[in-house]
Amino acid sequence: MTSLSRKLVRELWHLKGQVFSIALVVAVGIMSVMTMRGSYDSLVRTQQIYYQDTGFADIWAPLRRAPESLRERLANIPGVSGVDTRVSFLTTLDLPDLEMPAQGLFVSLPSRARPRINDIVLKAGRYLDPDESSEVLISEKFATARALRPGDALTAVINGQLTELDIVGIAISPEHAYSVPPGSLYPDDKRYGVIWMGRDSLGPVYDMDGAFNEAMFTLEPQASEAAVLAAIDRLLDPYGGLGAYVRSDQMSHQIMQAELDQNRIMGTAFPIVFLGVAAFLLNLVLGRLIATQRGEIGVLKAFGYHDREVGTHYLLFAMAAVVLGAIPGAAFGIWLGQGYVRLYGQYFNFPHLQYQPSLTLLIGALSISVMAAALGALAAVRRAARLPPAEAMRAEPPALFRAGWLERSGLAEFAPSSVRMILRNVQRKPMQSVFSSVGVALSTAILVMGLSMLDSIRFMMDLQFNVIQREDLMLVFDEFLDAEVLRDLENIDGVTRVEPYRSVPARLRNEHLREKVSLQGLAPDARLRRLVAGSGQVQPVPDAGLVLSATLAKKLRVAPGDYLSVEVLEGRRVQRSVLVSGVVTDFMGTSGSMSLNRLHALVQGPEMVSGAFLAVEDQALNRVNRYLKGLPAIASVTSPKSMYDSFQKQMDDSLYIGIAFLIAFASVIAIGVIYNGARISLSERGREMASLRVMGFRRREAVILLLGEQAVITVIAIPVGWFIGYWLAFGVASSIGSDAYRLPFVVGPASFIWSAVATCGAAVFSGFLIRHRLNRLDLVEVLKTRE
Amino acid sequence: MLHKPDIEVMKDRTQAEEVVLRGRQLTKIYDMGEVRVQALKQVDIDLHTGELLILLGASGSGKSTLLNIIGGLDVPSSGTLSYLDLQLETLDTDGLTEYRRRHVGFVFQFYNLIPSLTARENVALVTDIASDPMPASLALELVGLSERLDHFPAQLSGGEQQRVAIARAIAKRPDILLCDEPTGALDSETGKRVLAVLEQVNRETGTTTAIITHNATIGALGDTVLHMSSGEIVDRISNETRASVESLDW
Question: Is residue B80 part of a domain?
Fold first, then answer.
């Protein structure tokens, strides 16, 4: 070991506090990359393999009923590489101990072979026996939530008949990787499950013998989606086609994709910010640290050490801090990534969901840290090395203080000398103060960005559940019913208000642009479910025309006052031009709404409703639920309250943990900047501090002088951090958006306050650490050493 | 331990031995932005093999500047400086580094030891990069510190620290030993001890030595004494005899 290496080791140990805080920042940067980007990469890879293995469809085409003979013509559509057909129905399950009816989505599987498109993955039990008509497979989430195992029985209402079914297997499917009941955005595994049954058994009970009500397609690589969709719709229209849709409109895929997109953005934005801050800090801290070693650099040079050797020495110092941070950072990041991916597994059902970060990612993250450290160290070493050794060995000349803005402003006269000293120190090294401030500001900014996500989600949820969905229960009827049923509902004891709605599948067209939506007909005097703009303002249901979600209007390139071609996909399949009377900025789903009467007129035929919103007295809720569960005409009863609860659970599980980490990360950064800044100031100005103490300053007074500078830097940093954080949050909110949901941009006052409180907390904590050092300062020793 | 120098031999050597270092018309101007300070004004200087040169002068007289230029720590603004055949004023940073690495040893007023290294390791710092060094322990023995090899600077007195610094400077067997106020931070007794070590090294190893001091009494110790004032050499004295350290009094 050379003496230089020994010096390195001893000084790393001596400066362990600073080395540790730098290492921590590096660790946080690398950890955020490994966790966020690493889990995103893993999820995407798993998703791709899953889709490939199960032959996940490119296009789905639901319809009323078509003979199996149509299949060949579907297969002949140019661009289609594969077709499969099936029978699927949503029905009520009769489950014990549930206050609300449960729903089962029955999906047929080929009785004698596995499907080529949209296959399932068996997790337990076995595949269906073609000779046993009562055998079913059930979805894993549902099985887990209901504690059902192969061998158990299940009772369902199939085509009006109570039917006993035998569970032989537990399965998952990419179509239901994110499994939500119709009309909901959140899983409800206790009350909703997918049930796969042999086509030979399911077909006949639904009068689908030799027929199908859903077709699935895979496409050739070069195929035009739009052309194939149009051809499928043309073929299926006579058979009650409900509008074919592509993968990006498939519910599970769409929500998962939205999640993944969000992950990709967060997994890019956060690590960039963290690594950027880490790089910045390394640069700042190492620069100042090395500056305090200029005397030693001078000695080494005087004795003939080359700049190269001196440079390498300090570079190794920097690298040691990076490696010290990188190893635990990567390890902890991988551990956290595994947990993160496991958490995902609770919401998205994947086979073999595994966190597998790529080596490239790790190397990339490491390289950025190493480069940042090298740049920081080298810049400082070059500055120190550029000085002739004789000059380097002399202490820096007394700092050049001049009259500045402080004096010009006249404030200096009024300020006590301690304040003057603090402000002059800040003013003397403006760039250093600015850089330190920016470092602290970035930590505030990270907090603002993270907290604003919570604000956005809370805002969205509050809007959704307190302003838009004000019903206690939402009913979906098994089939369209006439308005008579509303009176029956009103007569239920405890029901205080009933509002009908109708939802009709339709295709909206503006020239070549087309979107499939479910048109909502709302009562004009609706109070339970209303049209609400993103601002929270209630929009009246227009007498005439259609109100579109802003996202939908944008996709179709229409504005209020324009006309759209509406193709109703049921009944007489009327086509009509309809006025776009308004656009609402909403955050969940996409919709087109109009008054109930106008919708009846548009569809033509009898005036039917598809469901109702109910207001129910609190104490009667359970009783009403039980009663509704017994009505065969009601396909589902959902309560916004239980949706909200399931959402809250998700928030508690993932978001709050995320926020806690964010606060920890931001604190590490703030402490890294402030502690290091103060430590270096202490070594730069130890003599000044000692002189003050010798002159009779109390410890507290000396500390204030030293930390005052850091306090000024923190105070300047906070508003800057707010500003940066505000725009970071804006960037994140506007880049997260899908058909499933969009994130409103909200930064609540509490987020500003908390981010400032956390930053100040980190500053105070750093101050305590420094105060401890200052208390131990040996006055005589400091004064004895050379200036 | 120290013997009285053999005056005749010394005298002969200073006059007869070759000039190892020759400076002519050396000028140094510091440009401090708002002020220009002329630290050296056309100074001529010769250093002979084995010579002990004392540079006397008040603070700010330019003696440190001259020493730094001779040692290759700084470059003159104008003038020429040669070490044997080497033209120092033409060298770049790397060239000067090599010059210092091979030929020069330094002792500073404030020792400039690396606090994180022990006495032995501080010396080894230099022997690590020297081509024909003496063992660090031998160098420390020469300065009378063989008992304190593994002490850190903070565990040594000022005089001991300065002797470590001398050991560090001589361990690589430099051709020129340059000492900037080596006793400046020491009390007179300790200072004498340090001077005795320097004198002994000069005498026993024949290392050309230049010592800067503001203490005129120390001048008696040297073969040659140069008085500096305001960046100029105002007086040059060749001592017929070198006084002994014990005879000095301040």
Answer: yes
C-alpha torsion angle, residues A728, A730, A736, A742 (rounded to 10)? 150
CA distance A200 to A136: 12
Q: Which of A6, A7, A302 sits opposite B106 (nearest CB)?
A: A302
SS3 state of residue A89: strand
- pLDDT tens digits along A732-772: 888 776 666 777 888 989 999 999 998 999 888 888 888 88
Total domains in chain B come to: 1
Interface residue A787 vs chain B (CB under 8 A):
no
CA distances (Å), origin B71, targets A391, A458, B40, B77: 13, 71, 15, 15
By C-alpha distance, the chain B residue nearest A1 is B128
Cβ-contact A361, A330 below 8 angstroms: no
- Residue A390 to residue B74, Cβ atoms within 8 A: yes
Residues 6+ apart with CB under 8 A from A268: A37
Angle at A67 between CA A66 and CA A71, to 5 degrees: 90
- Which sign, positive or negative, has the C-alpha torsion A323, A328, A333, A334? positive
Instruction: Note whether B112 contacts A14, CB cutoff 8 Å.
Output: no
Residue A657: Cβ-neighbour burial (10 angstroms; 0-12, 13-18, 19+):
middle
- Residues A273-315 have pLDDT tens digits of 777 777 777 777 677 777 778 788 888 888 888 888 888 888 8
Give phi and psi for A366, each to the nearest 5: -65, -45
Chain A nearest C-alpha distance from B34 (Å):
11
Minimal-distance CA residue of chain A relative to B99: A304
Q: Do B100 and A298 touch (CB under 8 A)?
A: no
Residue in chain B nearest A385 by alpha carbon = B93
CATH of the domain at B51: 3.40.50.300
Q: Is the pTM of this model over 0.90?
A: no
What is the CA A543 to chain-centroid distance, rounded? 38
Q: How far is CA B108 from CA A3, B56, B162, B220, in A?
A: 20, 16, 8, 21
- Residue A31's identity, in one-letter code, is M
Output the six-digit token pair for A370: 């190493």
Distance CA A46, CA A49 (A): 5
Residue A223 region by backbone torsions, left for phi larger than 0, else alpha for psi between -120 and 50, else beta? beta
Of A6, A298, A305, the CB nearest to B117: A6
